[in-house]
Amino acid sequence: MSALHLEPRLAAIVAQDYPKFSENEYARRHQLLGDVMERAGVDHLLVVTDHRAGNAPQWVTGWPGTNEAYVIFKPGVKMTMTVEWVNHAALAAKIASNVDVEWAEHRGIVKAVAELKRRGAKHVGVIGPLIVSKWRQLEEHFKVTALDSAYLRLRTIKSEEEIDWLRIGAALSDLGLDALVRETRPGLTERELGNIVERAYVGHGGTTLIHYIGVTSMASPHIFVPPQYHSTRKVQRGDIVFCELSSLWWWDYAGQVLRTFTVDAEPTPLYRDLHSAAEAAFDAITSVVRHGATTQQLFEATGVIEKHGFTVCDDVIHGFGGGYLQPVIGSESRPGGPPLPEMTLEENMTLVVQPNVITRDRTAGVQIGELIRVTRTGFERLHRAKRGLLRAGESYTEA
Fold this sequence. Notes:
Layout: H1 8-15, H2 23-40, E1 44-50, H3 56-61, E2 68-74, E3 77-84, H4 89-95, E4 99-103, H5 108-118, E5 123-127, H6 132-139, E6 143-146, H7 148-156, H8 160-183, H9 190-201, E7 206-217, E8 239-249, E9 253-254, E10 257-262, H10 269-288, H11 295-301, H12 304-307, E11 311-312, E12 317-320, E13 324-329, E14 350-353, E15 357-358, E16 369-374, E17 379-381, E18 390-391
Parallel strand pairs: 1-5, 3-4, 5-6, 10-18
Antiparallel strand pairs: 1-2, 2-3, 7-8, 8-9, 8-10, 10-16, 11-15, 12-13, 12-14, 14-16, 16-17
Helix pairs in contact: 8-9, 10-11
């Protein structure tokens, strides 16, 4: 297992038994939630993880909800949280901050309704994926308002503490990339490549968000974007490998790094051209990234891709960190979905810039890019993985 090179303050976070944010950080979040509640006119929030989906309870309490977690929040009142399953409640009580925790007894929504009624709630805001049947149970007793959009807006701007946790996620993701590039060799299957990626960071406390890995012949490519699931195809000499990797630090703070590398061969002219266009697009986009930059400016910068005669398959830019966030931007030939979001970048937004350049006939493609932080005057790289068209068998993560 490779060493995880971190600054002392980040290494101290990783060394904690169960890492937690500071009390000041939770106070900041709770103040933001109180402001959302005031604008929406709600008197309580029900914050939900359901069927293992939804990260808001972790943001509010520190508990990365497993099967189910229902948090009842009101500023100035101690939170309550019910969790499933019974054997999860003890750890939830240990990890969660400033919240009374109990087992939901397989009736979490019933207990939530009872607690809200006990508190005299009238208008309840909901954040998280509450399924329809449970939503209807809530509506039988209270006026209910969905506040997911407001929550996602809160997640777009990161605190300094959150950015530190994202730095750890980036470092873990870089370990996965370095191991993948260094250990890929002819004869390994895509499944084995996925195993190499995970083995690099799991021992340091990282978990997998995604590891999309594509392997194809440069002379006769059969895919143009990395598949989401690994096949049994074996790596061969003359292949190109392209990947999108995200390792999570403590379930909600991931890096995202995208790279392309060759196997025992020089890149063909087509792949050299694809990669050159992708690098030019990354540079064009990041040259306009700064506090106050508009989405229109970002979109216009992606035009480098079409000028090189190529297009894209995926979004070229998206917000990241706590979710797949706005702004989501494609390119002229493959928009990110109409309309272009009308917003400007703000300091401490975190974005993935990923020009996934492909041929117009959708036969070949490359992946490059990574997670960055928006600053007042430009951007900061959160990853240390070297850029460029890489080659299997070598190490590419900077110490």
